[in-house]
Amino acid sequence: MKQKLNLDAWNRKEHFLFFKQMDEPFFGITTTIACTKAHEKAAELGVSFFTYYLHKTLVAVNEMEAFRYRIIEDEVFIFDRIDASATILREDKTFGFSLIEFDENISAFAEITKKEIARIQATSGLFTREYPENLIHFSALPWINFSSFSHARSYSWPDSCPKISFGKMMTDESGKKSMSMSVHVHHGLMDGYHLGEFLTFFEEVMNR
Predict the structure, then answer these.
(1) Distance separating alpha carbons of residues 141 and 180, to the nearest angstrom
(2) Which residues pair with 181 in a beta bridge?
(3) Model confidence, pTM
(4) How far is CA 66 from the centre of its chain?
């Protein structure tokens, strides 16, 4: 499911060694994503909008090799598939970390997501299962139209998972819908160019 990257043959070896030693090796951006067509498509398919844009996020993540890199014991590995650990809200307003496995088929993915949401909502606590390393950390804040974003981080805990968050869906006077999106990534594994590639592809799949 994963293979080790040959650092000596990697053109970013110096970049990796430089950034991985930093106390805070992550960098991030906040942007606004058009989602009128995606919202319509989700309704057409009969899936929740959350499920739809989580699926498209994972489509884009799995398309981009840099987003499938993870650092394990100072080595870089390339995973064949990346899943999502999304924060799932409960009735008591606590949340739990989920594990939602990616499936290219949106109907199959919707069923996986529905079952995992129900499982989290029937549990208590933050950690409710074992979590693999082939993840992105995913969250939605549908109450907030944010223009910047930061994450709680422990510098002593080795972490190289991308962190992707979405805000409140907004509708303008013409009926066009949009929402804020935040992406934080490990600078040892990718640069602004790769992040730009990811966002361009994500917007493309959201508007298909």
Answers:
(1) 10
(2) 31, 166
(3) 0.95
(4) 13
The whole-angstrom separation of Cα 180 and Cα 29 is 11
**Contact call for residues 149 and 182 (beta carbons, < 8 A):** yes
For residue range 110-155, what is the model confidence (pLDDT) as tens digits? 999 999 999 999 999 999 999 999 999 999 999 999 999 999 988 7
Cβ atoms of 105 and 160 closer than 8 Å: no
First to last CA, the chain: 29
Residue 143's alpha-carbon distances to 33, 161, 166, 181, in angstroms, are 16, 25, 10, 13
Q: Do the strands 69-72 and 26-34 form a parallel or antiparallel pair, or are they unpaired?
A: unpaired
Phi and psi for 21 in degrees, rounded to 5?
A: -85, -5
How many CB atoms lie under 10 A from the CB of residue 194? 17
Question: Mind spelling out the 3-state secondary structure of 25-93?
Answer: CEEEEEEEEECHHHHHHHHHHCCCHHHHHHHHHHHHHHHCHHHHEEEECCEEEEECCCEEEEEEECCCC
**Amino acid in the structure at residue 196:** G
Q: What span, in angstroms and rounded, lies between the C-alpha atoms of 124 and 95?
A: 8
Kindly state the DSSP code that residue 122 receives in the 8-state scheme.
Answer: T
- Which of 150, 128, 137, 168 is CA-nearest to residue 61? 137
Q: What is the bridge-based pairing of β-strands 163-171 and 135-140?
A: parallel
> In percent, how much of the chain has pLDDT > 90?
95
Report residue 148 as tokens: 């910047």
